[in-house]
Write a structure and sequence with these properties.
Blueprint: E1 6-10, H1 15-26, E2 30-35, E3 46-50, H2 56-65, E4 70-75, H3 90-113, E5 117-126, H4 139-158, E6 163-170, H5 183-187, H6 197-207, E7 219-222, E8 233-234, E9 237-238
Parallel strand pairs: 1-2, 1-4, 2-3, 4-5, 5-6, 6-7
Antiparallel strand pairs: 8-9
Length: 241
């Protein structure tokens, strides 16, 4: 990544967002992070903006604060408020959609409207395999992730010639510093391990590179093959055993 690039990462203080931010910084880019929680790391090329991306005014103020155009926008932030079995309220469900779908749309719109997207800018939306398969009681998060997948191909068409827009759907990504995974956890993945934030960050960097210049409107599932493995319950227990 060239040292003259300017990157925005939402939800960049922890987890996947932090790893993405650190990789861009290591490559010489300048990164603006938006998050509610302050990052526990620092860098001379890191700029932190504290705020809730569900807040329209906050996004407007953030864009007004930018002093240079944006080469890559990484829409990573999202939250969960459970679902129908937990009596997820109207307000909580709506809030998750504002964070996970409305904010990526509106932030992109603001950058476009204020001429703050460089020519041939890159936009990467972070979705989830939850957009395609679910555990019970995950309706709020799942809906947001399904929405961001659809938003991706829609924006890719609308922004043709202005920006390439792609999506990444992570599977099981371990963000703990001291993970403990059983043998069965690993067997659920044809890649024979649970994913790490670096697995996603590397794909982000690839999609933001010239090597991916003919890719737009796509969603990339990165889950170690987990969503392709048939798991069934038979007389002898789980089919994985």
């Amino acid at each position: 990544m060239s040292n003259n690039k300017h990157i925005i990462v939402t939800g960049g203080s922890n987890g996947i967002g932090r790893c993405v931010t650190e990789m861009f910084l290591k490559g010489g880019a300048s990164v603006s992070v938006i998050d509610i929680a302050a990052p526990t790391y620092s860098h001379e090329c890191l700029r932190f903006f504290c705020g809730d991306i569900a807040d329209k005014n906050m996004l407007e103020n953030f864009v007004k604060s930018l002093d240079r155009p944006v080469d890559c926008l990484i829409n990573n932030a999202c939250v969960s408020r459970r679902g129908i079995l937990s009596d997820c309220s109207y307000e909580d469900f709506e809030y998750v959609q504002r964070v996970g779908v409305t904010a990526p749309y509106f932030l992109t719109s603001l950058l476009l409207r204020n001429n703050l997207l460089t020519p041939n800018a890159l936009i990467i939306n972070i979705a989830s395999t939850r957009a395609f398969q679910s555990h019970p009681d995950t309706e709020a998060y799942t809906s947001a992730k399904g929405g961001i997948v659809a938003l991706t191909h829609s924006m890719a068409v609308s922004l043709s010639g202005k920006a390439r827009v792609n999506c990444i759907s992570p599977g099981w990504i371990e963000t703990s510093d001291t993970p403990e995974h059983s043998a069965q956890d690993k067997r659920q993945h044809p890649a024979a391990r649970v994913g790490t934030p670096a697995d996603i960050a590397e794909m982000v960097l690839f999609l933001c590179s010239d090597k991916a210049g003919f890719i737009t409107g796509e969603n990339f599932i990165i889950d170690g093959g987990m969503s392709k493995l048939m798991i069934y319950h038979g007389d002898n227990g789980w089919g994985l055993e």
